[in-house]
Amino acid sequence: MLKLKADYVLTFKEKSDILLNAEVLFDKKIIKVGYNLDETPAVYLGKNSVLMPALINNHTHLEFSSNKTTLKYGDFITWLNSVIQNRENLFTKCNSKCYKDSINEMKKSGICAFGEISSSGNDLKYLTKQPLKVVYFNEIIGSNPAVADILYQDFLARLENSKKYENEKFKTGISIHSPYSVHPVLMDKVIDIAKKEEMVMQTHFMESNAERLWLDQGKGEFKLFFEQNFKLSHPLIKPIEFIQKFKDTKTTFIHCVHANEKELEEISNIKGFISHCPISNRLLNTGLLNLENVKNKLIDYSVATDGKSSNYSLNLFKEIRAALLMQVELHPKYLAKDLLKAVTINAAKSLGLNNGSIEPTKDADLISFKLPEKVNDIDNLFLQIILHTNEVDYLYINGEEINL
Ligand code: BEZ
Ligand code: FE2
Asked: Which domains does the chain have, with CATH numbers?
């Protein structure tokens, strides 16, 4: 059992967000939060210390972590072609050190858990031997019916293999790459499995205007892309129909930059989540998610880095700082609080984890770091945290201190 005391404790519990000079008592789980809790001596984290739930990066592709300057940024279709061309080389280049560096970057920046999209299964052996919690999304991709069965068998083999490693820190999930890149028959089959086995799901959705034009009208840059690469002349599903397939699952829709009102409403109806990846969207020049719309539709959103295939970093503090600076329509003071909730409690809900807030019975997944000075206006606390934090001093997962 350990009791930590900090100048600023952020709980992200429904009402009492900020407690000043407060204590948190925990073992594997949070036991109590407040003042003068019991006789256990408290460890004081120091002047201007912050204690809060550890961060959760709910959408990454570590398989692509070896990418630095290989992939082509600035345009979505150009980028996608460069991914297809370089995928195998980048995967081969991501060796043990490459995975280790990615995990280190995440844990130093206070991340206790991440959602990994795995398209090959190459990443599995590296992710089962590291200290962070993982939700491992086996991804299905492929629109060509001629190879659908081969792809499905490969998916099933990867899924079964990953299930062998399930434990309190490793959960399996299922990802459908996107509405344009997966045959509807495959979608139905894997959604059936997710429902039966109560697995969480993720899918990329409306990332680019090219996707919008292709799915609505069978036009735009994807027309040539599909004719050349997959001998496909028309899209196979309408976006609304695609969203409805995920009813009665726990699904996070990644990006949604070009999702329209009706689609956001439908995501809200089926109690779906949205993950916002602003740096990735900027680098591929796909636009900016309208967060105000997402909030108005009462959709819980999280923020994630995506992979190094479309980011220079896996640090979530950098990602939410980018969101804070890019989302100019929203007031920085209130947005800052929403962004910290996005990478804690909301991300936990989207992955089905029992963490993301400091309240009794939650997993003791905590971080602590120091602000450079006292915060004069407590209303600015969330904003100052986002501006001044890159790395943390301590990370606890299930109550255990992790070596940083
Ligand atoms: C497809 O199989 O349709 C596909 C695969 C990768 C990217 C885009 C589409
Ligand atoms: Fe992604």
From this structure: 2-53+356-401 (2.30.40.10), 55-351 (3.20.20.140)
